[in-house]
Amino acid sequence: MKNQELWATAGKDIFWYQLPTTILDDSNPPFMRWYADGVTNACYNALDIHVRDGRAEQLAVIYDSPITGSKSTLTYAELLDRVCRFAGVLAAEGVQKGDRVLIYMPMVPEALIAMLACARLGAVHSVVFGGFASNELAVRIDDATPKIVVSASCGVEPTRIVPYKPLLDHAIEIATHKPERCIILQRSQKVADLLPGRDLDWAQAIQNADAADCVPVAANDPLYILYTSGTTGQPKGVVRDTGGSIVALKWSMSRIYDVQPGDVYWAASDVGWVVGHSYIVYGPLFNGCTTVIYEGKPVGTPDPGAFWRVISEYDVKVLFTAPTAFRAIKKEDPHGKYIENYDLSGLKSLFLAGERCDPDTLNWASNKLGVPVIDHWWQTETGWPICSNCLGIELLPIVPGSPARPVPGYKVDVLDTAGKPVATGEIGALVLKSPLPPGTFTTLWNADDRFVSAYFSNYPGYYETGDAGYIDENGYVFVMARTDDVINVAGHRLSTGAIEEVLAAHADVAECAVIGVADEMKGQLPLGLLVLNAGVDRASQTIEEEVIQKVRNEIGPVAAFRKCIVVDRLPKTRSGKILRGTMRCIADGESWQMPATIDEPAILDEISQALAKLHDSA
Q1: Which of 100, 244, 272, 383 could form a disulfide with 146 if both were Cys (CB 3.0 to 4.6 A apart)?
Q2: Whole-angstrom Cα distance, residue 484 to residue 468?
């Protein structure tokens, strides 16, 4: 009941056309329905309410693209006008409440405008990361069956232009479902050929469009579908509802991130990922903040000072990014020299998420920036943090390696394979007690049965996160690995994350990965892959021997850590997650498929060659 009281109070902080009288409908678990009889609109809560309440001239969006040299801003009034008119474009093409619109866009303001325009009409958007291959795009088109596709002529990477239109055309060609219309934003870097009768030019369409009003929607109507990374033959479309999302995201902005209306908040991610949905678009705008859309990289656009420039130039209060971004910066500028070129006095905190943050990276960032560095844990399915140091409530002691304690609304337990609680400090499956709080996923698109079987069947009464870890005597949660990354060495369950902590703490190591490879004697053995800091000129073999000894000293012989190799780079998804599972398949000689979300496919060839050399030398 205390949980319901929390969310009843939080629910009063948003705009409703019809106030909910039922806070939680739990009559059909695990399909929980928050604010079941409420009526609202996400776009109204993101834009109209702020214009109404005096924030019309405040900046809503800052767009910064070091790759193209473009910068622009939109006030809340300007953003509202553009969203209303693009919603009018969609409405003129027949888009109504409940229709799906697929958005396949680069990091430009129009991506955000398209998302909010869908929300304005009560349409369900499904954003697909720009540059996804045609087959993956076709799979999502067939699953979501969108009436309209909104795209751009191209995306722009530091070393190349990625034409989107040919990828989209081929996806529609091979898809069973055929969208009625495609609306294309033409970018000067690569103008696309439009197909007469199907394709509309964004600029021409919006020029004479009538503004559309907000459409009231039920709180449990879907706001969006977001496909989890790596889905191929069987899509997994996470569905987020409208009312719960507004309440939870707005609550999180002040309670977790300690930002207030008018503050500049920057999530250095992409709108194609859940971080982009929650904390580039919806969360900051629900809270009346200024959000940053950054079309660039942490390094190379043009240098390791890229993030510091943006923070300084726009007086960013909170930066949220992935640990891999900081590992890239640390690798190129291990002494933090570029930080000295910028005034970062406005920065109050750094939040990291998306993968486990090793203590060495956290400590490096903390030492260089002099602000609280908060590792927090959440997933596409939850939509907002499960565990975090909540700066807007109380700054707890920061414990490197832990995302602190569960956020209010979540209850985290650790269970063994039989579903029994494990002892304090013992590793097991991390699970969340049902009901999950508002803003978490409500089902999988067109797959209610899979929603139950994939997440709620192994541990009745709990949501299975797929992560493994432990809770210490102070209630701090330690997320050590994905469940399938916990390796069994001669009967001892070991976390790859614990070994990675030791490797990452070596002075010459920029980043690392540990995978469990098959072994006839011990079942599995850990294998380490190391990427070194820029400028390291010591012999790779010497460093490999040092980290092997370091693991032996700090974890013990039980880890049986005897193999590691220096590589130039690690294979990652476009969101920065290391592809440990794929590398494990390569190492074990198992069949594997090229992951749909991989950033640079050629890296896997390099890894294959490196692992083959290691095998031959053994």
Answers
A1: 100
A2: 8
More confident residue, 480 or 181: 181
Tokens 């751009």 correspond to 152
The answer to whether the CB of 240 falls within 8 A of the CB of 441 is yes
SS3 173: helix
- Asked if residue 393 and residue 247 are part of one domain, the reply reads yes
Non-local CB neighbours of 457 within 8 Å, separated by 6+ positions = none
* Domain extent for 120: 39-410
Per-residue confidence band for 597, with pLDDT thresholds at 50, 70 and 90:
low
- Of 410, 442, 476, the position where a domain reaches its end is 410
Distance of alpha carbon 99 from alpha carbon 149, whole angstroms = 12
- Indicate if the alpha-carbon torsion angle 168, 170, 174, 179 is positive or negative: positive
Q: 373-378 contacts: CB < 8 A, separation 24 or more?
A: 373/349, 373/398, 374/349, 374/350, 374/398, 374/403, 374/404, 375/323, 375/400, 375/401, 375/402, 375/403, 375/404, 376/256, 376/351, 376/352, 376/403, 376/404, 377/353, 377/403, 377/467, 377/477, 377/479, 378/353
Structure tokens at 7: 């969310």
> 171-180, 188-197, 223-232, 490-499: which range is least confident on average?
490-499
Q: Does 147 map to a domain?
A: yes
Burial track 231-269 (b if 16+ CB lie within 10 A, e otherwise): beeebbbbbbbbbbbbbbbbbbbbbbbbbeeebbbbbbb
CA dihedral for 205, 207, 208, 209, sign (positive or negative):
positive
CA 25 to chain centre: 28
CA 430 – CA 428 distance, rounded (Å): 6
- The set of residues, in sequence order, having a beta carbon less than 8 Å from that of 265 and lying 6+ positions away, is 253, 257, 259, 279, 283, 284, 289, 290, 291, 292, 316, 317, 318, 320
| Region 100-107 average pLDDT | 97
Q: What is the pLDDT of residues 279-298, one digit of tens each?
A: 999 999 999 999 999 999 99
Assess if residue 440 is contained within a domain: no
Return the closest-CA partner of residue 451 out of 236, 274, 145, 219.
236
Q: What is the band of 230 on the pLDDT scale with cuts at 50, 70, 90?
A: very low
**Overall average pLDDT of the 556-583 stretch:** 82
What CATH number does the domain containing 169 carry? 3.40.50.12780
User: Looking at the structure, do residues 382 and 496 belong to the same domain, yes or no?
Assistant: no
Q: Please name which of 560, 445, 556 lies closest in space to residue 491, comparing C-alpha atoms.
A: 560
| Same-domain check for residues 103 and 237 | yes
> Which backbone phi and psi does 202 adopt, to 5 degrees?
-50, -55
Nearby residues of 89 by Cβ (< 8 Å), 6 or more positions away: 117, 183, 200, 205, 206, 209
Is the pLDDT at 233 greater than 70? The verdict is no
Any domain includes 32:
no
Which of 410, 429, 452 is the C-terminal boundary of a domain? 410
Total tally of structural domains belonging to the chain: 2
Mark whether 406 and 500 lie in a shared domain: no
Helix segments in 436-560, DSSP class H? 448-455, 496-504, 540-554
Is 78 within a domain? yes
Pairing of strands 428-433, 443-444: unpaired
Q: Where are the alpha helices (DSSP H) in 236-380?
A: 242-255, 274-276, 283-286, 306-314, 323-332, 359-369
pLDDT for 521 beyond 70: no
Q: How confident is the model at residue 355 (pLDDT cuts 50, 70, 90)?
A: confident
User: Which among 478, 472, 497 is positioned nearest to 487, based on CA atoms?
Assistant: 497
